[in-house]
Backbone:
């Protein structure tokens, strides 16, 4: 009889442990989803700002048509991307085209001084910072989930209930990882 009680206590302990691990894995998975949704909100904000930016720039930069078209094309690719990998690549391309737009706009003093352009530039810069923070949060949560699903003993529950690793939101363009050079 004592053996049955001990066995029952061990089984109850294992079940409680498995439920606790499962609940923690669900929480981590939901944190990853929340992190992605925060990125998505900021990317939507960025995509909404770009047409206004391009319209203002068009008036000043008539012969810089290629730069403006690249920004519009990059925005559309980013909007249309569906998988995480596609979204990463499209957003990295969009970041590059925006940088080139702002670099070209430096050649137009009237455009640089335009109040709407300055306001949109400021909003876009703020949005880029928010995207950066959202990516950091997302990647932190992905790291927590990936660590949990790969470490023993949590991996036993993770494998049983198909909790898998997630991909980080990374910069794929090596040029974006380089430290910018400041020249005076």
Residues:
């Amino acid at each position: 009889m004592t053996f049955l009680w001990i066995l029952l206590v061990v089984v109850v302990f294992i079940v409680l442990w498995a439920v606790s691990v499962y609940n923690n894995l669900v929480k981590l998975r939901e944190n990853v989803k929340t992190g992605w949704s925060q990125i998505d909100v900021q990317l939507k904000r960025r995509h909404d700002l770009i047409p206004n930016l391009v319209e203002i720039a068009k008036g000043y930069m008539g012969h810089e048509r290629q730069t403006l078209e690249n920004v519009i094309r990059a925005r559309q690719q980013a909007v249309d991307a569906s998988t995480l990998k596609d979204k990463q690549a499209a957003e990295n391309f969009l970041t590059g085209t925006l940088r080139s737009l702002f670099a070209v706009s430096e050649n137009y003093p009237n455009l640089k001084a335009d109040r709407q352009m300055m306001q949109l530039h400021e909003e876009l810069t703020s949005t880029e910072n928010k995207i950066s923070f959202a990516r950091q949060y997302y990647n932190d949560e992905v790291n927590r989930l990936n660590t949990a699903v790969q470490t023993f003993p949590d991996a036993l529950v993770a494998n049983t209930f198909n909790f898998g690793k997630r991909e980080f939101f990374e910069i794929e363009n090596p040029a974006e990882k380089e430290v910018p050079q400041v020249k005076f």
Summary: Residues 27-175 form a domain with the de novo design (two linked rop proteins) fold (CATH 1.20.1440.20). The first helix runs from residue 2 to 60. Residues 31 and 104 are 40 Å apart (CA to CA). Confidence is low (pLDDT under 50) at residues 177-184.
